[in-house]
Amino acid sequence: MVRNIFGFIGRKSFQLSDFFLDFFREVSGLYYLTREALYVTFIEPLRGKSNKWGPIWYQMDEVGIKSTTIVFLVAFLLGVILAFQTAYQLARFGALNFTGALVGVAMTRELGPLMTAIVMAGRVGASFTAEMGTMKVADEILALETMALNPVKFLIAPRLIAILIMLPVLTVMADMMGMLGGFLIGVTTLGIDPVPYIDNSIDSVKLMDVVTGLIKSGVFALIIVMVGSYMAFIIEGGAEKVGQNTRSAVVVSMVLIIIADLLFTTLFYFIT
């Protein structure tokens, strides 16, 4: 019996050690790919190897322009929900006019960048993994290396620049759409006077609130593109692995986005 117990513990310890080895292997791989991507994107252009803007413009259209409809819809509905929920509580204290202030601060500091990043992780991150994963399975990435072309610079750099530009832009637009949704519901349904609503929103939303949201969106953009690219680059096997890694890329991106949001929210709470 004692032998069985120690044998069970030994198997569990072995499985646990394998888990941590795999975890640190994946973290290490993601770190080195991110470092390489940042180098070829921002350092090499300073040394005369400029980025080609044709692929970047194309990715900006794919990442940003084609995502505006879904981002606007989600942000508008989120503003409506926030207005209803905050008004329900504030009405108890006779502070219904401050609904706009809470909606504005919540959208700019937290929900605008977070929900935009989650939508983009599902739409764009999955697209990155599927596209580059298909190239990996078809040995197109190997062909790039054979032609002495750096796959990181050729495939990841345009996507990284595009999403670093477009995600903050979409975040600002999402902030405005969320506040617009809250305003329309506040004025038409909740019976709030539009002038106090707007005045309280302007007084409450500070420039730092917008800046913190934009800083978060930049970090979220890096997470989305690097996780999606890494999950594509490590695909081994047939086409079924593309689907598996695409699903994993979306889940991992969302988890890391929420963790990063927690860390930056905590940091900004103590420094602002």
Throw out a few tags for this protein.
272 residues; mainly alpha; 9 helices; 85% helix; elongated
Could you explain the architecture of this structure?
The chain is built from nine helices and no strands. The protein has 272 residues and is an all-alpha fold. It has one domain (53-267). The chain is elongated.
Return the domain count.
1
Element order: H for helix, E for strand: HHHHHHHHH
Low-confidence stretches: 5-14
Beta-strand segment tally = 0
Mean pLDDT: 88
Give a quick account of the main beta sheet: strands, pairing sense, barrel closure: none
> What fraction, in percent, of the residue positions are helical?
over 70%
- What's the total helix number? 9
Shape: elongated
Give the percentage of residues in beta strands. under 5%
| Class based on secondary structure composition and strand pairing | mainly alpha
Radius of gyration: 23 Å
Euclidean distance between termini CA atoms: 60 Å
